[in-house]
């Protein structure tokens, strides 16, 4: 992708666009009775922390970056927890470094949603408890693990995010199911089991196969989510693949609505063996973001809280688009003088 591609113009062009729209995104928006929080799905990607991309020169440590980010946006999605179980101390530090009303959405660990994890990323004591035939594998699935190890993974995840939950800074746990998670009775049962394990912590479900919403399954899918008060993660994702869930306004809980923007880079969406950041290397044009303004407004008319997360976290593409969509949503809101 070169400089002539408007969806990958480089950090300098994207940064200029973002700076022009930096104000509206800094605080939650109030749309009707709803609070709308807008942010990104990372604050630590190396392409984002590179000099001159998003952070000022004096934001050189993890602490400095989170403090700066939390001054620019009222919410962030934590993706690191997908790869490694969170530590309670980390959550305590996040509390200290962010304002009282800042919100963290936390992605569930891969093994919690039927996806594989590298064995070496598991805590040392859990690795040592694994049978030899599992320990020798590069990647492992939850179905391969002894039941007590799987239970311990859930328990440690929930313990790691407890500082956020107990302080009120936990927005939701994101259960992102893989594209091979199909609309079956077994899959629906898995989601209900996950809800039981999570307890009273807020959560939302992202489904990554279009068959959940084809003519045969859409009514059952919506009924299942609504009946069980499970917030559905609406997505803007690359179109034209088997896993492409269509963009739609679908609010299935009375508590929370979530929208995640993955970019529209179809050629890399299902490609394996590439850096994850390349899959999401896509800068939305303002008119593409504008397609979501009425959908987000509709969601805000149905729930008290809406989260809008940019997962196109290559360089400053996500931060720029977060600022732009905040500006679009705030354009015709009444001004509050303070």
Descriptors for this entry?
single chain; 338 residues; alpha/beta; TIM Barrel; 5-stranded mixed β-sheet; 4-stranded parallel β-sheet; 11 strands; 15% strand; globular
How is this structure best described in words?
- The protein is of the alpha/beta class and 338 residues long.
- The chain has a single domain (11-330), classed as Alpha-Beta Barrel (TIM Barrel).
- The protein has 16 helices and eleven strands.
- The chain has helices at residues 11-19, 46-49, 62-72, 80-83, 88-97, 124-128, 132-135, 147-160, 162-167, 185-198, 218-227, 266-269, 276-279, 286-290, 293-300, 317-330; strands at residues 29-31, 34-40, 75-78, 103-107, 117-118, 139-140, 170-176, 203-206, 233-236, 256-261, 305-310.
- Strands 1-2-11-10-9 form a five-stranded mixed β-sheet, covered by helices on one side. The chain has a four-stranded parallel β-sheet with strand order 3-4-7-8. The protein has a two-stranded antiparallel ribbon with strand order 5-6.
- Strand 7 (170-176), helix 10 (185-198) and strand 8 (203-206) form a beta-alpha-beta unit.
- Helix 1 packs parallel to helix 16.
- The termini are far apart.
- The mean pLDDT is 94.
Helix content: 25-40%
Largest sheet: 5 strands, mixed
The CATH class turns out to be Alpha Beta
Proportion of strand residues: 5-15%
The quaternary state of the protein chains shown equals: single chain
| Low-confidence blocks of residues | none
CATH level-four homologous superfamily name: Protein of unknown function UPF0759
């Amino acid at each position: 992708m070169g400089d002539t591609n408007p969806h990958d113009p480089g950090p300098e062009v994207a940064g200029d666009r973002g700076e022009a729209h930096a104000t509206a995104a800094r605080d939650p928006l109030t749309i009707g009775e709803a609070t709308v929080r807008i942010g990104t799905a990372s604050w630590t990607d190396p392409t984002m922390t590179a000099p001159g991309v998003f952070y000022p020169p004096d934001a050189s440590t993890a602490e400095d970056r989170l403090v700066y980010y939390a001054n620019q946006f009222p919410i962030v999605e934590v993706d690191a927890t997908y790869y490694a179980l969170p530590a309670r101390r980390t959550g305590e530090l996040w509390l200290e470094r962010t304002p009282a009303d800042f919100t963290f959405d936390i992605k569930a660990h891969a093994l919690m949603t039927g996806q594989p994890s590298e064995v070496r990323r598991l805590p040392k004591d859990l690795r040592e408890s694994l049978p030899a035939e599992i320990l020798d594998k590069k990647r492992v699935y939850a179905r391969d693990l002894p039941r007590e190890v799987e239970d311990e993974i859930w328990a440690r995840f929930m313990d790691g995010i407890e500082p956020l939950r107990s302080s009120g800074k936990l927005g939701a746990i994101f259960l992102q199911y893989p594209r091979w998670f199909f609309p079956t009775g077994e899959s629906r049962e898995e989601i209900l089991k996950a809800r039981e394990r999570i307890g009273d912590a807020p959560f939302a479900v992202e489904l990554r196969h279009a068959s959940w919403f084809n003519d045969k399954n859409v009514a059952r899918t919506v009924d299942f989510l609504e009946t069980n008060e499970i917030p559905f993660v609406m997505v803007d994702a690359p179109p034209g693949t088997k896993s492409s869930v269509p963009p739609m306004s679908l609010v299935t809980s009375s508590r929370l609505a979530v929208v995640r923007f993955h970019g529209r880079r179809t050629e890399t969406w299902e490609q394996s063996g590439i850096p994850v950041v390349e899959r999401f290397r896509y800068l939305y044009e303002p008119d593409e973001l504008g397609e979501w303004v009425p959908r987000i407004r509709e969601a805000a008319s149905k729930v008290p809280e809406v989260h809008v997360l940019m997962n196109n976290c290559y360089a400053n593409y996500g931060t720029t688009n977060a600022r732009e969509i905040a500006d679009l949503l705030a354009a015709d809101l009444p001004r509050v003088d303070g």
